[in-house]
Amino acid sequence: MSFKYNPEEVNEVCEGIASFKILDAKDTDQHNYPLRTKDGENSIIRLTIRVVDANGGSALINDNLVSNAPWKINQLLKAVGRASWFRSGNLNPSQLINLSGQCNLKKKAYNGKDYMNVSSYVEAEQAESVNPPGPAKDDDWGDIPF
Question: What pTM value is reported for the model?
Fold first, then answer.
């Protein structure tokens, strides 16, 4: 038995600024992901995002929002134009799906391999002053098969 895949989907992304779109957001407490913080008491939202760099390379990257790191939650919400949501102190993961913005990518070594990670999210006002790489409109994301 064989399965089909798109070999064009394997594009390397470069470090630096990239456009992103959130494809999925799950509360790890509700979905039993094996992610825990050091003290085991914090909630974690696992994001699956599609990134497109300035050269057109694209990739799927996972990023985690942790309840004891509100600065990162605030940074993400500012990047997707939803800064006002931060004040509530409560975030519904499903509200994040399909939101987009810009982020900075950086390689990180883990177990002898390099992985691309989101090092920071770019606030919407700052992103406007930078030439936006990759797709600028929702229609430009194409048919993502998931």
Answer: 0.72
